[in-house]
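User: Here's a chain of 151 residues. Predict its fold as tokens.
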Amino acid sequence: MRLEKPSEKTFEQLFLLIKYYSDRFEMLPKTMDELYHQMRGFRLLVDDLDQVLGCSHLDVFTPTLAEVKSLAVQPFAMGKGYGRILVEDCEREARELGIKKIFALTYRDEFFKHLGYQQVTMESLPEKVYKECVKCHYYNNCNEIAVLKNL
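Assistant: Prediction complete.
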């Protein structure tokens, strides 16, 4: 198993993994075009047969704030620590960039709390709200939970 950036071999698998969760309203949908433009920020956990086991995306908002986005693990691979590997790799990269705080919006806050994140209000993340949330069709009906970790 290895962490890598999306490639021609794994791009469609990335799209299908995100689609799986967005079809269940557990993740915001992404078009192939959106994924293509965000590809450099994605990391994939891939097995020896080049099958994507999970994905995450680090989105840098400011020199001191970043977000773990699009965290997903294949349903058959849940409970094996793959989500933790992906989040910790986002945190590693954020630290290398000098980022002091990392956050996520999630429906699974307990997962993040086990990794040292604390629940915060959406209002405490104006960078996220004003950059992206105001454009989201769930803006007035968002039920995601904001979590934050000091690095």
